[in-house]
Amino acid sequence: MRLAVVNLTSGGFSGGYRKYLHSLMPRLRAHPDVERLDVFVSRRLAVGDDRSWPPNDGLTGYRALSRQIRQLRPDVVFIPTARWFDTGGIPTVVMVRSMEPLERPFGGNTWKEGAKNVVRAYTARRACLRADRVIAVSEYVRNFLESRWHLDAHRVGMVYHGIDRAAESEYARPASLSVLGAHPFMFTAGSIRPARGLEDLILALATDPDSERRLVVAGQVDPGAEPYNRRLRELARNRNVAHRIIWPGHLNPREMFWCFRNAELFVMTSRFEACPNIAIEAMNQGVLTVSGNNGPMPEFFGQTARYYQPGDPLSLAAAIRDTLALSPSEKDVLSSRARQRAGQFDWDATAERTVQELRKVMV
Q1: Is the pTM for the entire model greater than 0.85?
Q2: The domain that contains 87 carries what CATH number?
Q3: Does the pLDDT of residue 166 top 80, yes or no?
């Protein structure tokens, strides 16, 4: 198989997408069925052997990119970003890995960000309708594509993402968390934006005003989400829990692993996910977890987490109390179960299943 992977984006890569490329591309290149792999990224992101296209090529419908693809004559073009360009009739597979623009483009966002999400949803649907095959990154996404967008089930495949396993030496306490002292803490992580639903966690924290427990909220504020971040800080002040919340910003992988390893509890409040890598990472570290019961969370956590109703802070507070009240032996069972479940999500398996999906469009 001669394969071209084209990473069409209107800007940069998210952390999760960078991890996807870093983990998957070498495995695809080493796969015995892949004779040649050409990876295309925008010029400002290209490194090493990456191919690219002119900076303004998008204004012409990616004509220069199309010419390059036709000259290379790959057997399959894979566009993991659910966008589209003219591949000259070469079989094309796209992947859907973001659900917020598809399900609720505004959802607490500014009008500008909501409008961008509308465009993203239109672009993704156009790509799915034109592609020869579509890869969903969870059953939840596949069900959406088939039931809401009415894609033919025979054209839709499903491939989970994987995770990297951490060695014992790959843990480091973040310097920004020195203020924790000996306080127990709950942990949550991800880009700070309205789709995170972090207000649930702040309000749940306020139901236990006398507790010494802290909350660590890791992640950077997404561009355009500054008003949401301000609302969160104001909510914390109004509920008298601002002093119990630590906002360390972006944490590197070693710091993330330390937080997973040392937190009493990991809390997942995100409203919209496709394949939540952070959920798999939490399970891999064996941390106790409370999550919203919205899709696709139960698909990933299974019986390893306790669930609450998103938008209901009292439901979240009860789930937190019940989880923390478990006996040590019950906690050990949940932790072991989580690690076992995380073992089902493996990058080698992701590469193998991706190749299987790509082969289905070869003529």
Answers
A1: yes
A2: 3.40.50.2000
A3: no
